[in-house]
Amino acid sequence: MTSEGTMPCYRCGARQTDPVRGASPWQRGVRHETQVLICPDCQRLHDLDLDSCSTCGSSALICRLGEVECRSCGAVRTARSDALTAPAVAPPPGLSAEVEAALNRVLGRA
Question: What are the structural domain ranges in the chain?
Answer without folding.
Answer: 27-107
